[in-house]
Amino acid sequence: MLSLLSPEMAMYISLILPIFGLFGIMLADKVPNVREGVTLVTGAIVFYMAIIVAVAVSGGARPGFEVAEIIPGLAIRFEVEPLGAMFGVIASGLWIVNSLYSIGYMRGTHEKHQTRFYMCFAIAIMSALGIAYSANLLTFFIFYEVLTLSTFPLVTHKENEAARNGGRIYLGILLGTSIGLLLPAIVLTYVLTGTTEFTLGGLFAGGAEGPILMATSPVIFVLLALFAFGIGKAALMPIHPWLPAAMVAPTPVSAFLHAVAVVKAGVFGILKVVIFIFGVDFLAEGWAADFFLWLAAFSVLAASAIAMTQDNLKSRLAFSTVSQLSYVTIGAMLATSMGVAGGATQIAAHALGKMTLFMCAGAIYVAHHKSLISEMRGLGRKMPFTFIAFIIGAFSIIGLPPMAGSWPKFMLMWSAADAGHQLVFVVLIASSLMNIVYLLTPMLRGFMDPMSSGLKFDKDCLAEAPLFCLVPAWITAIGTIVLFFYIEPLIAFLEPVTGAIGFGG
């Protein structure tokens, strides 16, 4: 029985099953219902495996296995701790929701190459789980690169000039930063420490033997810079243009990039490096993190300001993501237990909220082929279920209770005030106010403005998107409310790595 599987076996299945799913999808190319059934069944099994792993981790286990040792101290190895287990559950669970949504969107817009689309998704989710379960920087890097390569065909799916240009930016920045910055950071870490293993408390902190380098050493700043900019999927300015450029992709891809795997792999990587390579307490003793704290704060405000100018709804949401990802970087660079916990919970809350927003944007496009906010005036009265789901997701991103996004923002504000960074506290308040402007204004126009001249409806009928587009958006919208009430168990689950015990940590 599946319930009798060991967590190690569940990890094996999680990493291998998407490959079998890929071949099943390919073989069912001419039978769409079977093809998409294979996707959903694969997703459901992988999600169940992630739950088995997470349950074991919650009980104190650290399941793992080694694939191969290349040279001493350098191995392809997996081991799961609470942060990785959380990311694995988020990525695999939202893959199911995204797959349901993809059925409605891809059929509704009559997209070509749908088999290739689902095959690339399978490789990407395997990559995301490989990142979540990696035990060291080498394994992380391998799956990080596979994730980039497997999502490139998704970004360029439409195969037009805009898609090709967006794909070039996407691939150029992400490969350029990972090979040019992240790889040298990993090599330097190995040279200095003799290993790349993720070590609780920090590899550079050195444990009982003392730090390998002083926290104030310029080498620590250089290394942190290589990691912060090398993990380009975290979209810290100025390594962010790939994210808005990728919005040429179909909306299910946008939702996947922003909520399920790609950007979440980036900020997950930032947290892993801070917690397990440098160490939270070690960084707090030096000055290296301060520069990136202020850079992240700048990214929050600058990206929000750009989002306010965007008429294209997906572009507005893309710059919103650049801003919201920097919350995680702020939490990491505050170098406090509450800050790290706030950054970690932001991964979960943002995934639910932003996926809701993108799926609603796609639902509007499927139903009425509208992507510009200026063309959506009065549309909310004809698509009330879509627009209300959007508002719920927006409330979470803004940080309003009872939506999940209110807790990470509260924790980051608490941490900033406690650490004496009052200006960061002000930045987070200003960000919430800007969120209100760029997220709620379009929705208010949708409900209150006169109908756009380009919209024509039967006055007695609603004009909603297909159920396969609408239901997934409501699943994640409701998820933001559920997570609000269950944030304390999530914080307790993460406590072994963050050190935050509830709201008293």
TrEMBL record:
Residues 134-431 form the NADH:quinone oxidoreductase/Mrp antiporter transmembrane domain. The chain crosses the membrane at residues 12-28, 40-65, 85-105, 117-135, 141-157, 169-192, 212-236, 256-279, 291-309, 321-341, 347-367, 387-407, 419-440, 461-487. It is a multi-pass membrane protein. Keywords: Cell membrane, Membrane, Transmembrane, Transmembrane helix. GO terms for cellular component: plasma membrane. It is found in: Cell membrane; Membrane. Its main location: membrane. InterPro entries: CPA3_Na-H_Antiporter_D, ND/Mrp_TM. Belongs to the CPA3 antiporters (TC 2.A.63) subunit D family. This is Cation:proton antiporter. It comes from Aquisalinus flavus.
